[in-house]
């Protein structure tokens, strides 16, 4: 219950401020649903023609004069993302600080429009770090695009679709771009409502070992200047073990600032032990200072066990995002961490620079 006070503050903040953008904050900035900019109706991955045009005209300081859309043909298209960073880690105590160059993510997307607007085959392949198939699914849509069914390997419909997989709300829940699962998803979009429901193995893409299945539900109500929603996830396991998660989330566009908020509760039941409940809070604000320049501030809170006092973690980030030309963004930022004093990793501060190219 300790995080309820933080949730109250978060909701007060969301009720007094303005807009989100791409990552989720771009959706709040534009007032659109995820499916407007992404081929995946649940968000993330390859961009639609609209998403490609938006990224080349509205985001850069200097918009392009020649736009890239439909790279291959009307029936076959590809996309991709490459993120590369330099990160300095300032570690408290006697341990030596670190400086590392990393390829954060190199992915290629393939979209086969077998019947345009009706039947799609989609692949999302990661080439670095490490080789893995992230998503592979087929999707059928009704002619009015109000209903779709998707089968294969996909990301679970749960919470805000953040790009940062290291955020507490993605890392602690296990719902991130690193963890697709096999199953089936049903989606419905009508007016301001957006609903996603999936049944999956609950093994994060691994081999199934029992008959139990994971159920996920995400419902959002979306207006041009604000949005709110909730998610739930139940994953029963063997021998009475299980995980239950639920959250509330929202976004607001006010005073030319995009605000995001999410609060999660995660309960793990382990046979023969007491239940463990985690409470997680995420807040984000984005401001386009001038065209092509975005400032991002985030605050994160994690209580890994609400029965234990003084084990909470806090993190605050400040990030400058500069999009000088279409299809490229530079980021410079810092993340200040505050955890239990005896754990150096929980108190390691990060300073980073990142280059991101996409198409």
User: Roughly what percent helix?
Assistant: 10-25%
In the predicted model, the low-confidence regions spanning at least 5 consecutive residues are: 1-22
CATH topology: Porin
- Number of strand elements: 16
> In DSSP terms, counting alpha (H) and pi (I) runs of 4 or more, how many helices?
5
Shape: globular
How many distinct folded domains? 1
Give the rounded overall mean pLDDT: 90
How do the helices and strands line up, and which of them pair or pack?
Blueprint: H1 2-14, H2 24-30, H3 34-37, H4 49-57, E1 76-90, E2 98-115, E3 119-128, E4 132-141, E5 147-154, H5 168-171, E6 181-190, E7 193-200, E8 214-222, E9 226-236, E10 242-254, E11 257-269, E12 276-290, E13 293-303, E14 313-322, E15 328-338, E16 349-358
Antiparallel strand pairs: 1-2, 1-16, 2-3, 3-4, 4-5, 5-6, 6-7, 7-8, 8-9, 9-10, 10-11, 11-12, 12-13, 13-14, 14-15, 15-16
């Amino acid at each position: 219950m300790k995080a309820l006070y933080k949730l109250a503050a978060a909701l007060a903040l969301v009720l007094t401020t303005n807009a989100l953008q791409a990552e989720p904050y771009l959706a709040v900035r534009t007032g659109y649903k995820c499916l407007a900019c992404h081929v995946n109706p649940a968000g993330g991955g390859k961009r639609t023609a609209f998403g490609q045009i938006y990224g080349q005209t509205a985001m850069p300081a200097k918009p392009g004069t020649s736009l890239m859309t439909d790279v291959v043909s009307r029936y076959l298209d590809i996309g991709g993302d490459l993120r590369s960073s330099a990160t300095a880690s300032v570690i408290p105590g006697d341990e030596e600080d670190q400086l590392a160059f990393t390829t954060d993510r190199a992915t290629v997307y393939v979209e086969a429009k077998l019947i345009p607007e009706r039947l799609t085959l989609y692949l999302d392949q990661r080439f670095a770090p490490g080789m893995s198939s992230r998503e592979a699914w087929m999707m059928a849509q009704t002619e009015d695009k109000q209903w779709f069914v998707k089968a294969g390997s996909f990301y679970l419909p749960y919470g805000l679709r953040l790009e940062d997989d290291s955020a507490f709300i993605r890392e602690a829940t296990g719902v991130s771009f690193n963890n697709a699962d096999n199953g089936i998803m049903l989606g419905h979009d009508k007016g301001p409502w957006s609903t996603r429901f999936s049944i999956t193995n609950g093994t994060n893409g691994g081999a199934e070992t029992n008959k139990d299945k994971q159920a996920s539900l995400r419902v959002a109500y979306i207006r041009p200047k604000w949005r709110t929603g909730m998610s739930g996830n139940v994953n029963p396991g063997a021998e009475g073990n299980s995980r239950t998660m639920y959250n509330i989330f929202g976004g607001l566009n006010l005073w030319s600032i995009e605000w995001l908020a999410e609060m999660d509760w995660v309960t793990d039941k382990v046979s023969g032990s007491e239940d463990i409940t985690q409470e997680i809070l995420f807040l984000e604000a984005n401001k386009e200072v001038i065209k092509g320049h975005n400032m991002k501030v985030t605050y994160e809170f994690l209580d890994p066990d609400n029965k234990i006092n003084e084990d909470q973690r806090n993190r605050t980030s400040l990030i400058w995002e500069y999009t000088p030309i279409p299809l490229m963004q530079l980021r410079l930022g810092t993340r200040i961490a505050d955890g239990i004093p005896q754990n150096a990793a929980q108190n390691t501060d990060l300073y980073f620079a990142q280059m991101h190219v996409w198409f």
